[in-house]
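Reading is simple: each integer encodes one residue's backbone shape. The lines below illustrate:
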Amino acid sequence: MSQTGAIVGDHDRAAGRAGARSGRVGLACLGLVTGLALAVTPLQAQIQGQPPNQSQAKTPRPGNAADSQQLQQQRELWDALPEVDRKDVQDSLVWLGFYNSVTNGALGQRTADAIAAFEKRELLEPGAVIAGPGLAVLRAEANRQKSAVGFTLIDDAATGARIGVPSRLFDRKESAPGRTRLWSSRTPASLTLFASGAEDGGLPAWFARATAAASGRKITYKLMRPDFAVVTGDEGSRRFFTRVAAGPDGLRGFTFVYPVTDAVTMDRVTIGIANSFAPFAGKPGAISSGAISPGLISPGTVSSGGQQAAGVPAARQPGGAPLTGGALLLGSGRALVATAAVRGCKDIRLGDTSATVTASDRQSGLSLLAAAGANPANAGPIVLAKADAAQPASDLALAAWISDAAGKPQLSVIPGQFSETTQAGKVNAALQPGGAGALALDSSGALVGIVSSLTAAPAVAGVTLAANHPLASADSIRRLLADAGVTPQANAPGAGPAQRQGSGAIVARWRARLAPVSCLAR
């Protein structure tokens, strides 16, 4: 059963003491405590009827005059410290698992308890952190924890947000207008930042979508205030934490996903990320795909983007037709497309050209289109992989169409994996609407399959999660090409690790043969 904001305060006080005693933070505590922490930042304090930086200032432990007097004495010493040091103490205590609330520089009972617990563990004299050598010890211990995950503050040009990133958890990065995603090729860990315009329904609409029931997804905590919202939960073996802020320019937020088995460590990291998040630090703008990461494509060719920013409308062609998928251009005015992308459509557009279905194959879920002038210029050969070239868990690069911030079709590079054998025809990837017909390419650049239809996938914070999508195999494609009189090129016998390239470079080789498909009328 999901928690609500109404019980945050009481749980926070109890969980804070338990966290200090145990030296770690559990997610049940994390969702509630972080929700409270975010609720009392200076920007948001007015909605709770308290001035900024006063969330802990008048919270002596009830019924204990000695403790109250001791806290007041500590506060006098505390207030003499520079604000940067006060916040640094709280931030360091977060990383060591002693503290799980807002880092605002104010000394309350939770901060005092956390300091005392750290001093006891390190065999320091009481008061050593505030007025002694304990601060240096605290910082050194916290810095070791931060260094272990590579925690770094970044300004994200795609969303305009500033946030702390545990960079060592990730080895991949992709960006598109209004969205940046970092993820790991080794674990389910990912961090996605997203932004959407003020016209996209606002915070209530986003909150309704983010908390809607979805198979396999359990919401463990949800909280909405006039200018921010927090949603946490579990999705199979993954745990997610989402925070979204509302401002004059729309919504900006992030979702951090990590394995449930790593909760003891990642809960602390989550609090660190949440407390570092400055959603409106700058103006959002497009990130050049050439500056994203090694192996990606130069600007103007392909965007390395797998997720669509929350609220971004479906891609549309100049004529106003919504994007339904992508097609592989074969030459001589023909193209291969997922049948699902054109099913029931009375006015098909291939790029900005009218097209008609000439043949459909029920077994593969693919169809042939005819469109005058649909001839790829300077296109390379169609290279098909062998039937046994890839096995379950093999990495793939998917060339799929999504919409950019202006609602125009944009080719994106999306990571994927075989979730079953090629014969079973399944690929696991986070595909947006318009992903039907996406090409699945192996590390040598050979075509392994085409996504024949999309499986409905749950979205968290406007970010579509990965799901298993049907994949028409290379053998099916080879058979359809033969029927169309097209002879593909066999994959080079020596293709393998030595010929591997970045996913962006792989998709760029196919760019001339790819076109968006849309439906103007049904």
Observations:
- The mean pLDDT is 75.
- The longest helix spans residues 65-80.
- The first strand starts at residue 151 and ends at 155.
- The chain has three domains: 40-147, 151-287, 323-519.
